[in-house]
Amino acid sequence: MIHLDTNYLIGLLVKGSPHAGDVDGWLAAGQTLTTSAISWTEFLNGPVTPLEVSRAEAVLQSRIIPFGLPEAILAADLFNKTGRRRGCRFDCLIAATAILAQAEVATVNQTDFKVFIQHGLKLAAAPTQTPPPASPAAAGN
Q1: What does the pLDDT profile of the chain (141 residues) look like in tens digits?
Q2: Are 95 and 36 in contact (CB under 8 A)?
Q3: Distant-in-sequence, close-in-space partners of 128: CB < 8 Å, separation ≥ 6
């Protein structure tokens, strides 16, 4: 299961973007894509159009993981164990949700999330792309 951070939710709406390509690759590989209620809220803060929200919902198929008491407890623990960095509270919330859902986080901000790896977070790697086969004409050259 791949848990999309807000930047991936935004990026999947940009045709031809690397993020949209990654999402297409994960879907082609049969991965289940999710996001947290926290990332979904950040995404909806926009600006986004109703059509863009609908497109993101189509990819997620209602797999938005709620944030409750277990996530809150783990997020606070992550915040305290990783140095109480002022700007990382939302990252702690997102990381806690992914850890408890046993999902890998797909994010552009891997540096911000690496601090949570020792606490059980897994970061998603970009899907492997198989190079297209060489054309017969190219093979003969």
Answers
A1: 999 999 999 999 998 999 999 999 999 999 999 999 999 999 999 999 999 999 999 999 999 999 999 999 999 999 999 999 888 999 999 999 999 999 999 999 999 999 999 999 999 998 875 444 443 444 444
A2: no
A3: 25
Buried b (16+ CB within 10 A) or exposed e, 17-43: eebbebbeebeeeebebbbbbbbbebb
The reply to whether 139 falls in a domain is: no
d(CA 120, CA 35): 17
Count of the separate structural domains present in the chain: 1
Angle between helix 69-81 and helix 89-101 axes, rounded to 10 deg: 120
In a domain, 96, yes or no: yes
User: pTM for the full model?
Assistant: 0.86
